[in-house]
Amino acid sequence: MQLLASYLSGSWSQGSGARTTLVNPATEAPLAEVANGGHDLESAYRYARTAGTLELGNLTFAQRGALLASLAKAIHGAREELLALAVANGGNTRGDAKFDIDGGAMTLSYYADLGAKLGATSVLADGEPIQVGRTARMGGQHVWTRRRGVAVHINAFNFPGWGLCEKLGCSLLAGMPTISKPATATALVTHRMVELFAPLLPPGALQLLVGPAGALLEHLGPGDVVAFTGSSGTASMLRTHSKILDHGVRLNVEADSLNAAILGPDVDLTSETGGLFLADVVRDMTQKTGQKCTAIRRVLVPAGRESDVFEALRDRLGGIAVGDPSREDVRMGPVATAQQHEAVLAGIARLAAATEEVFGGTGQVTPVGVPAGKGFFVGPVVRAAEDPMWCEPLNDHEVFGPVTTVGPYDGDAEFAAEFVARGHGCLVSSAYSDDRDWVASFVTAAAPWAGRLYLGSSKMAAQSPGPGTALPSLLHGGPGRAGGGQELGGERGLELYMQRTALEGDASVLKSLLGGG
Amino acid sequence: MQLLASYLSGSWSQGSGARTTLVNPATEAPLAEVANGGHDLESAYRYARTAGTLELGNLTFAQRGALLASLAKAIHGAREELLALAVANGGNTRGDAKFDIDGGAMTLSYYADLGAKLGATSVLADGEPIQVGRTARMGGQHVWTRRRGVAVHINAFNFPGWGLCEKLGCSLLAGMPTISKPATATALVTHRMVELFAPLLPPGALQLLVGPAGALLEHLGPGDVVAFTGSSGTASMLRTHSKILDHGVRLNVEADSLNAAILGPDVDLTSETGGLFLADVVRDMTQKTGQKCTAIRRVLVPAGRESDVFEALRDRLGGIAVGDPSREDVRMGPVATAQQHEAVLAGIARLAAATEEVFGGTGQVTPVGVPAGKGFFVGPVVRAAEDPMWCEPLNDHEVFGPVTTVGPYDGDAEFAAEFVARGHGCLVSSAYSDDRDWVASFVTAAAPWAGRLYLGSSKMAAQSPGPGTALPSLLHGGPGRAGGGQELGGERGLELYMQRTALEGDASVLKSLLGGG
Predict the structure, then answer these.
(1) Fewest beta carbons within 10 Å, which of A195, A322, A366, A498?
(2) Shortest Cα distance, chain B CAs vs residue A35, angstroms
(3) Taking the model in full, what pTM does it have?
(4) CA–CA separation, B131 vs B118, rounded Å?
(5) Does ipTM come in above 0.95?
């Protein structure tokens, strides 16, 4: 069986000691192993701080962008192989796998283009020159420069391809050497991508640690950045980690998110907007088996319309075959790990105690094409909450699987926003309405509680990617429970890896520093 | 003796229980008392969340700006009274007091003007519209909206006037109700300012807690913001506070900062640039008795030039009378508290073990106009470090008093930047040079380690405020040890109190949300 190696200090090393087995979550068949330790992480950090810092520092944004373009091309060149790995190791259908792999390549391409746009410089102006003295002679100018340190990426199990690429696109374009650590259980895609990327990048620009984090955080120092996607529990551990506290390490967190979807009071379910709403809810439940941090977990519909919504959801979900995702007739695969399987079932049980069944009971399912008793399967589950605002298990606990809960409201936009707020900070929430006044009221009140608000309407229904898709041009990250992080959003995504500095002095000197006069 | 009251839930309350006495740090004469507890903070938060949120939410930026202008005017109207309080309670000379009080009014005026500029809206666009679909129909637009919660300000003892105003200007303009807590020992100025401000502001917009924080953090919830200025130790306590962690409360920290000043190899001490350098070092040592978070702590001068610098510093410092700051002949007062006095003397002792004396020994001084044995006095101290880069007490510990250490370097700009970096993140550092190439090399390498870089040169010497002055138009806050915070910097200062959200949908709907089409 393949023993996955880490790529550290310029070479591949398999580590040592006890091993963890990666399996196919549909069949539980072993796929590969990783060693649980035995890596010289201190040297890896040193390599990043020396070779990586130097090599990336010698490049302009345009040159770094060209590197990212080569990574995107490498993904395209190995696309079928990567899709197959995602299906085998991630429990992904082919569609799910494309979402992860193509999404990763698309994000790299986006940042490649941004690099070209930023051009032959490595310092970014932030705003216009400012007069700070009595005359124009005494000026100020804010700039962004790359942080001098290591970017450490700790990624989640659900997007081994996209997660690697979306963080890497920003850190490399900003000019920070990066150490990426995928979740062990689904590391095959990340591992293969880094095999493809490594020969294309300068020494020290990208390193990979597969297996447990071990002492990964022990070598953090001033100037370093940690970007984490995962659970609130792990996030709390990171926030209180002594190295992060002692060295003022910058930490970006994308954590739990109880994303809401609101059906506006003006929308007929049979309209284009109504159809978009239903399609988005069903897609977010079933795509990646509901394992998207952006998926809709909580749904509000106008009181009196619940039964229509329930019927439409039952109708659409009833036709979805659950089973081995390598089969063409299967529309939804298993969740990624045994641990997730347990957690999702426990979450459903908690929800079930406070809600009514609409579809799928508590997630029991007989998967197709799978040896009896094998695989981490949960069927799609819709629950009904009578009083969604005060349903605690609904609003306080993210069930990271194919599960959603629907409840009624009186159609009031402020109430809908209050319901979004009840999630204590989301990555995204969505509203479906063609009533501009209603949308305006909703947006003003809901925006402080979400990193992104998706506004579904008839005019954009035909070309909408749905709320569950994080686009590189739009901010990804939400306040409060969602972690308070900010990734992507075009140039905004670079801010994590750069320092904003006010330059103060002779205005002509400041101008010349930015390549002017 | 006056018992200072807190302003909570719309009325003044004196609290209860044991009391702390505020003294004149020059004479140790008692000035006022505060109760150590007995406040209903839960109600205060509720009042902010209800009345304060509602009242400020009904205002546009322009209207909030007008409120800030009225606060600045109130300071001007009571200027002499406030200056006298700063002299009595802060150990400030009249010049120090003006720096604090006038600086506060100036910062409020700046944000008043910014409010007028932002105009009759309460939502700010962040960047331009983005096309995210196949056609221009499917768009994205980032916006800033005020966070829905309470802004809690925890201020440092050194700037009871400016500290209140610089945080308040941003939080009120952004639209967040605010609870401000000054350091107890020097609370008289803050207390009086809030007495002046309270009648001018809508209910719930501003509350004041004097005395110990007590349970102030226990009532934090999602959406709240804590802005802290103070020591790294307290900052660590805040970062790991369960309420802040559990609710994803946004925390901004301005903490210890080992700001450096670099004399460029091209600069003659007798030149305009050389004179600026000397004046800035001396001002930062003596203004506010060195108790500025932006003060120069570490100085690099070209090797072979140390003795000239030492002589010039001895000359300038020798003429500075230390004593009761209410006397016109006194140029430097005491430090603010007995605790600070002890800490500064201990810091000097630690420095002394690794450096040579240049001026002022270890800070012993006989103050003028003060009863024998009274007051928290330290004389100005200059130390010399042979190998400044590796002098640990110099680079790892902030001595918050009239103390600076000078060491040699070979004139290399990269080395100078490395020395800035050796502070592990500063609020500000400065370089004095008229050689543009040298300055460019320095800036590129040093910028990632400082929130502000002050570039002293002959062209701006006549109108420079010096590196120690935090201007409202320029970012205040530094990476790493300095806390990683971002305050001021014009509109940038509002970001802490607002949420950035990506809106995604029909481009014409997005445009109409921002008041267009």
Answers:
(1) A366
(2) 33
(3) 0.97
(4) 25
(5) yes
